[in-house]
Amino acid sequence: MDTIVRCLLEKGRARVVAVITSDTVREIAHRHGVLGKAAVALGRAVSAGLMLATLTKDDEQVTLQVLGEGPFGGVTVDARSSGKVRAYLKHPRAMPWNGEGVGIRLSLADGMGSQGLVNVIRDLGMSKNFAGQTRMVSGEIDQDVEAYLQSSEQIDSVLRCDCLVDGEGLVTASGGLLVQTLPQADGTALVEFIRQTMDCERLSQVLRDATLAEAVDLARAMLAPLGDELDVLETRPVSFACPCSRERASKTLEMLHEEDLQALILEDNQAQVTCNFCGQRYVFSEG
Question: What is the pLDDT of residues 100-109, one digit of tens each?
């Protein structure tokens, strides 16, 4: 079962969030019919989005978008602090899987592009949402989101996410780790030490070789020997969920201008709405 865990490190000098998303990403990739790098992009974004949704104690929803100029066009994730998540690629079949890079960290720059924007919208259930935006730095998604946290939210952060695939392009493992300073906790040196000693390939190795029953096992393996000092605060299950419905799809049609609605109507006087996140189709007959 996929899980996400929140912890404190070295008596509160830093906060640690770890997530295992293997089963969840397999389902999302299957729903979109994607393999290889497209699945990896979804996996990294899903893990990053879920960890972003744990930064407050309240019920929080985060929308993460990494929008590049590459063939994929961009990835969008909706994640909740409850562990529910959904995601999609703008152009999921833009790069056919060629079987290269089995069980290792794959570069996504050729699919995502190295230039573009990272958008984060936080919905805390209040009257106004928080929105931030920064430029992409590499197209690797986790590095782009880490740069967003450093620049837009002004939090010293180390973020590592990856998703591994087999020779057929199917997801074998997916997860991530986030380490951040806490206000007035003097954890900057600790976070910087972790940044220098925990490169991106380390996560790929742990996902491939370690026995990971829960997200806390991932955190301890990644932070060893510091992982023995983790104080676990909370563990929650992670799963795919999409709240789309026929009613919501109908309301979408009602908001369209007449000419746009006519463009959607098929030859048999039916209009079809497809959810980008889960692929569910809703068909409406005229009248």
Answer: 888 899 999 9
Q: In this structure, are 131 and 8 located in the same domain?
A: yes
Q: 80-83, long-range: CB within 8 Å, 24+ apart, which pairs? A: 80/53, 81/53, 81/54, 81/56, 82/236, 83/2, 83/3, 83/4, 83/50, 83/236, 83/237, 83/238, 83/239
Structural domain for 257, as ranges: 246-285
Residues 143 and 274 in one domain: no
- Do 124 and 258 lie in a common domain? no
Domain at 252, CATH number:
3.90.1280.10
Give dist(CA 179, CA 18) in Å, integer: 9
CB pairs under 8 A, 24+ apart, for 29-33? 29/170, 29/171, 31/240, 31/278, 31/279, 32/88, 32/89, 32/92, 32/279, 33/92, 33/93
Where does residue 268 rank: exposed (0-12), middle (13-18), buried (19+ CB within 10 A)?
exposed
What CA–CA distance (Å, rounded) separates 44 from 174? Answer: 8
- 3-class state of residue 225 by DSSP: coil
pLDDT of residue 72 exceeding 60, the answer is: yes
In a shared domain, residues 105 and 236? yes
* 151-171 tens-digit pLDDT: 998 889 999 999 999 999 999
Provide the domain count of the chain. Answer: 2
Same domain for 8 and 91, yes or no, is yes
Residues 170 and 268 in one domain: no
Predicted TM-score (pTM) of the model is 0.92
